[in-house]
Amino acid sequence: MLSKLFEINEVDLEEVKFPGISTSDFKIFVLRIDKLHREISGNKWFKLKYNLIEAEKLNHKTLITFGGAYSNHIYAVASAGKEFGFDTIGIIRGEEYFPLNPTLQFAVDCGMKLFYLNRAEYKNRNDKAFQEKLKIKFDNPYMIPEGGTNQLALMGTEEIVNHIKTNFDYICTACGTGGTIAGIISSLKGEKKILGFPALKGGEFLENDIRELVTERSSQSYNNWKLITEYHFGGYAKIDISLINFINEFESINSFKLDYIYTSKMFYGIRELLKQEYFSKGTKIVLLHTGGIQGNKGMISKVNNLLKNNY
Ligand SMILES: *Cc1c(COP(=O)(O)O)cnc(C)c1O
Questions:
Q1: What is the pLDDT of residues 68-120, one digit of tens each?
Q2: How far is the centre of ligand 1, averaged over its atoms, from the C-alpha of 175 (Å)?
Q3: Residue range(s) defining the domain that contains residue 241
């Protein structure tokens, strides 16, 4: 069953346009890993791949993981559990609300059992003793950290660049926990340039996390990467009218959608860098579409409120 994880079709590389920018001096492509699977979207597929294989190897029947109520990772784990025959448990940050939001409703429909922790309790999620307690309570599940980032996740995200069938100078990705960019850094071994766009405020902290992940994975550290930390729009899942306007303009001249939480912030940042002439002429840039479209349903009321207050 898990052999399906190795049967990836060719991943599309599409040229993109940026609103208000003449891109004739550049080649800008988007690697559409968001299209790999309808639910285990984008980078989550690569992050889960070797974790699922490990869980099966160790004979675990259940996967347990952590996330916020709108988490793409929770959504992906729930879907993967259903598809590959694992029971799933989601430890959700915050209180339980009804009706469930679309992300959590989907998770429950996939068979995931949800447990809620208040914000103080949730802070213990990476604590070893706390995790041991969970393992006992839930009969020894395979534990996947929040956001899916661990060394096995890097083994998967290292494979992303193999799908780029053209020469390029830069590869760019949105960042949450940094597992995706860390895999890309370790796979490129100092070649090319890599830009990460944290979707959270305080992206500077992430730099250390990424460095540690890369060093643990490859016993090397590299300097051909950089975080562009100013396009977080106030923090995780925060948006404003300029981001919404950008998304609408972008989608009107390209053939695919962006998500509000991750990819749109990176694409916005790329447009700003293009405006600032950050890239020299002739540069070939690959942008990773890491998926996340499912989360847009949970953002609709926020978007509508912002639009209402601006017209
Ligand atoms: C989870 C997610 C990310 C962040 O990936 P990390 O490996 O945690 O940095 C980026 N984009 C999308 C769409 C995601 O769902």
A1: 999 999 999 999 999 999 999 999 999 999 999 999 999 999 999 999 999 99
A2: 6
A3: 2-37+155-305
The residues that bridge with 88 in the sheet, in sequence order, are 63
C-alpha of residue 139 to centroid of ligand 1, in Å: 29
Give the ligand 1 atom nearest the CA of 34: 13
d(Cα 17, Cα 21) in Å, to the nearest integer? Answer: 8
Task: Tell me the CATH number at 138.
Answer: 3.40.50.1100
Tens digits of residue pLDDT in 133-186? 999 999 899 999 999 999 999 999 999 999 999 999 999 999 999 999 999 999
Q: Are residues 10 and 141 in the same domain?
A: no
pTM: 0.96
Residue 291 in contact with residue 72, Cβ under 8 Å? yes
- DSSP 8-state code for residue 150: S
* Inside any domain, residue 10: yes
Ligand 1 atom closest to the CA of 47, numbered from 1: 7
Does 137 lie in the same domain as 63? yes
d(CA 104, CA 309): 29
